[in-house]
């Protein structure tokens, strides 16, 4: 009688199928590549079938792998549900909680308030994962997420906590050097700080493509923190969350908020963790902290006098 595959081996199989190679799977599982290769070999031996073709571009699933993939994912879903249900009833506000958000949001909107949270909950260990990749709460890649898009999974609970307004900015030094900014002229004669790689798909990047069509691109970046620093250094015009204008007086808002680019901030966690004391404490802290910043997140900074900001000012006009 054929032995039933172990869940740990199926875990490694799924990681290789999703990552496309041993190194990506090892990073996901936080083990070394040798372990992934060994567990995969054990599973292939137990099943009596090759699961991946080793190609120069990576591991390509065989027909057998594609047939068993849905069943393996079903096993994974049930195993993770057992974990969530077990931890979901934990009544002690202690232990690790993983929160995922963008680097900019964690740095500016969460970390300045963390010391107060630590004083109230010294036994909770926060793991803050920054980046633009959407980690899976269903697969427990994180416990809580701060997202700018409402999730569609029915098992996830989402709470709207704020809205982020977007404003075009340039530094005072840049405006003094380059002169008036006119969006109706496509920013002709000006430079913009643009978006690179995957961030080219962001609505902000598409807005610049339309409204700054005649500008040159000084630099392209993939993070909000990078865009902020480039703007502060006077490299060009860029789009940033409105609250940066409150934090950095050297930045000049060139227009009011852009309603079409407003982003809603959602606080998301899995319904199975609703009764987990440490997750609940983190969710309540984040809801209160972000909610207290709602006005500054959505309100445009005060614009300077028209002559100072050089918007719509036509040369020779009196």
UniProtKB/TrEMBL annotation:
SUPFAM superfamilies: Periplasmic binding protein-like II, Winged helix' DNA-binding domain
Domain of life from the UniProt record: Bacteria
Domain HTH lysR-type, chain residue ranges per copy: 5-62
Family classification: Belongs to the LysR transcriptional regulatory family.
Keyword Transcription regulation: yes
Region (Disordered): 296-318
Protein name in the entry: LysR family transcriptional regulator
Keywords from the UniProt entry: DNA-binding, Transcription, Transcription regulation
């Amino acid at each position: 009688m054929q032995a039933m595959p172990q869940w740990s081996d199926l875990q490694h199989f799924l990681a290789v199928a999703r990552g496309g190679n041993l190194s990506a799977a090892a990073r996901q599982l936080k083990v070394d590549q040798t372990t992934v290769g060994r567990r995969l070999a054990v599973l292939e031996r137990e099943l009596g079938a090759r699961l991946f073709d080793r190609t120069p571009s990576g591991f390509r699933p065989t027909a057998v792998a594609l047939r068993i993939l849905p069943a393996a994912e079903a096993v994974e879903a049930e195993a993770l549900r057992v974990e969530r249900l077990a931890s979901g009833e934990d009544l002690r506000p202690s232990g690790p909680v993983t929160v995922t958000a963008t680097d900019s949001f964690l740095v500016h909107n969460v970390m300045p308030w963390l010391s107060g949270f630590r004083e109230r909950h010294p036994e909770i260990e926060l793991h803050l994962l920054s980046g633009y990749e959407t980690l899976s709460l269903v697969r427990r890649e994180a416990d809580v997420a701060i997202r700018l898009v409402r999730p569609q999974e029915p098992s996830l609970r989402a709470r709207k906590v704020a809205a982020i307004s977007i404003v075009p900015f340039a530094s005072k030094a840049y405006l003094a050097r380059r002169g008036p900014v006119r969006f109706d002229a496509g920013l002709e004669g000006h430079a913009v700080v643009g978006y690179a790689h995957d961030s080219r798909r962001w609505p902000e990047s598409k807005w610049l493509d339309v409204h700054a069509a005649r500008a040159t691109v000084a630099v392209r970046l993939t993070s909000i923190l990078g865009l902020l620093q480039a703007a502060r250094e006077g490299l060009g015009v860029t789009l940033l969350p409105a609250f940066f204008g409150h934090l950095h007086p050297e930045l000049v808002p060139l227009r009011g908020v852009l309603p079409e680019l407003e982003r809603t901030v959602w606080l998301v966690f899995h319904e199975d963790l609703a009764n987990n004391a440490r997750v609940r404490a983190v969710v309540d802290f984040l809801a209160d902290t972000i909610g207290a910043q709602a006005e500054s997140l959505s309100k445009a900074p005060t614009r300077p006098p028209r002559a100072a900001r050089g918007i719509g000012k036509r040369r020779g006009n009196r």
